[in-house]
Specification:
The chain is an alpha+beta fold. It has helices at residues 14-25, 47-58, and strands at residues 2-8, 28-33, 39-44, 65-72. The chain has a four-stranded antiparallel β-sheet with strand order 2-3-1-4, with helices on one face. A hairpin with a 5-residue loop joins strand 2 (28-33) and strand 3 (39-44). Helix 1 (14-25) runs antiparallel to helix 2. It starts with a strand and ends in a 5-residue tail after the last strand.
């Protein structure tokens, strides 16, 4: 699964916190900053856990301020 996270998500601990959430869910993957200010999250694992990750990304408990999340791969809505 690949998710592009938009909003104020750089310089706020977003990648670090996302890494902890990936580990908590038992998913393989990571997060990286992009030059356009987005963060790309890539994850691999069971579909249900990927869906939980997407819910967490969209849920408002992440650092910073997420305005939208574009998902491609198994956790598509």
């Amino acid at each position: 699964m690949r998710a592009v996270v938009h909003g104020h998500v750089q310089g706020v601990g977003f990648r670090w916190t996302t890494g902890r959430e990936l580990a908590r869910l038992g998913l393989d993957g990571g997060a990286r900053n992009e030059a356009d200010g987005t963060v790309v999250v890539q994850a691999r694992g069971p579909r249900a856990d990927l869906e939980r990750l997407v819910g967490w990304l969209r849920g408002g408990s992440t650092p910073g301020r997420v305005t939208s999340v574009d998902v491609t791969g198994p956790a598509d809505d």
